[in-house]
Amino acid sequence: MITVIKRNGRVEVLDISKIQKYTSSAVKDLTGVSQSELEVDAKIHFKDKITTEDIQQTLIKTAVDKIDMDTPNWTFVAARLFLYDLYHKVTGFTGYNTLREYFDRAEKEGKILKGFKEKYDLEFLNAQIRPDRDLQFNYLGIKTLYDRYLIKDRQDNPIELPQHMFMAIGMFLAQDEKENRNEWAVKFYDVISKFEVVTATPTLANARTTRHQLSSCYIGSTPDNIEGIFDAYKEMALLSKYGGGIGWDFSRVRGMGSFIDDHQKAAGGVVPFLKIANDVAIAVDQLGTRKGAIATYLEVWHNDIDSFIDLRKNSGEERLRAHDLFPALWICDLFMKRVQEDGLWSLFDSYQCSDLTELYGEDFEKRYIEYENDPSIIKGTVKAKELWKKILTNYFESGLPFLCFKDTANRANPNPHVGIIRSSNLCTEIFQNTSPSHYVVQVEYCDGTMEYFEEKDEVTTDVGIIKKANKLTNIDSLNGKKIFITTKKQVDGETAVCNLASVNLSKIHTQEDIQRVIPIAVRMLDNVIDLNFYPNRKVKATNAQNRAIGLGVMGEAEMLATQKIHWGSEKHFQKIDEIMEAISYNAILSSSNLAKEKGKYPQYEGSNWSKGIFPIDRANKEALKLVDRGGLFGSSCDWSALRETVKNQGMRNGYLMAIAPTSSISILAGTTQTIEPIYKKKWFEHNLSGMIPVVVPNLTLDTFEYYTSAYDIEQFELIKAAAIRQKWIDQGQSTNIFMRLEKASGKLLNDIYMLAWKLGLKSTYYLRSESPTIDDNVMDRSIECVNCQ
Length: 789
Hints:
Structural class: alpha/beta
């Protein structure tokens, strides 16, 4: 007699029928798989006192090993078997316990924030839970959910099931709704649990927990003073501590050989400060899970640009290297024009020319040329083409620096009345106003009173000496009061925030579905702003002023394949133009309706939104020619009526749309990544359990030919598709470029990025290269930002 040991330690006689019950349900209603094949190929050696855990893991591994292009449904068999195991671990049986039991246990473990469940009718919400939605998961999806998102106890045992997690997220995000709170929680739950809209990783992982940091990325700027530079390190450290990815502008920091206290050639330039930022990224890891991720931005006219481009080179002077940063260039139109003209390019010290960081477009070009013609300004000169060649060479060799276009970003800024966009984020899809902190001189007198001055204010001391305020010391007295100490105090400054979610185009691509889902998604993201944990006051104040969100898309390649549309075809361009228009229209309408209900964002008055100027009105003229659907802008929505609606109601959100990378959440949802073509039809993913085979979603004889590798697609078509989307987006999109090494050339790279600039893209992300001599079957996700995904 053979016995088995159950998970609770109980020993009982082996009952084959119980195993067959699980194998039967695991293959139910799936084509191309069979129960007998699973059981036979498992080759389970039944020995006395075998554990049920061993039996389950053997069946799972058997199903995983059978995943292939001609038998893709084995991934769902493996997922179901994994789920049965998960159910047993969490509840002790194959199914769900009640929502109340889930909350009680999670609160007892200290893993869920107390207080918000009391705002709800738990019995009503429990009745809305749909366990059958777990059947949507493929194997990699449920493994990703288990490894990254499900709550575990102190012994790392799971205490949460997928549908409870999704409902708890919906409840957390709906808790401040004044009316119909239960109904809003269900609406949020429905779109997330059906994978129609999926929030970014921080929201999925942290909404409902005691550490409710829900934002993906932060974008800031460093001033040109030692206090501001080191305060920026502190800010970056705190943001990284709580899991945020960082994009940071260093363009105002004076360059190598600049002045310090009127002494020329005293400054060491921006690179030594970047090396400290590099060490911050390493030292302050993201809650012990991975090192911090910081993208550093520099304008292309900065006199340290040459050493900045080389930051990550493996050769050369190590003191000039920062191997863990992600350098990014902030490129103006004038530079691209000089490249085209084979002209000269002047490099300036930002100490002398700091106002260039405050200007864009014609104003920038006018001021730049004035500096070129001013003999009192110290400058260097290079051939624009040679600098461009160096940029592209480094980009080809390492995928870096990221390339972002300053003037394009600022021309399309919905809020130019309150600032300027100085950089993007870590994934190059967020474009919002930021500003470096401002510092005033704080004079503390011996009697305890305080007085404040601007640094350059001229102050007359009691002995009649006129000094700049930043030169006052404790030997001075003002108005009969002796100074105790002078310090600099940080005031103002803006650090922007990314609050992200993605619409799954493989499920949501009709007008009716878009109209149904977008208002829910916008409301959900708007609630993130108020419920988020902010690492510092400046970040919260910035987000409260502009109420920025970033609604994007994923699953484009799956949608196209399912509808038998070739990537890069005219039909593709037409389709994505229609969909992005509908999403843009409904996102703007939803935000405006929210403004009527909850109030406008504080910076609304004077914005482009308030003037009836929408993203499509700022669209690149060449991009507008790529698709002609007839009518105004080739559009099908009533934009005139929407402009009137916005003028009457306002907007709830100052920034609205951005397309993030999404690799983590697209894996979870079982769809293709963001807006990209597929890499391969089959590949392997690294996992804690080993190598997992993955096949593109919904692969059938009908869809096979419509899945084309990104490396086989003409990259000019990829740029055109991005330009078509960009017309409808107020922020940007993470746009990777793909290239096989044997096809690569300097001319091809130049042509691709020139086209990106001419068609109005705001940025490109990584250059991904594929070598014919290297096995690329294993997906490399080491360079991907987890937060935006």
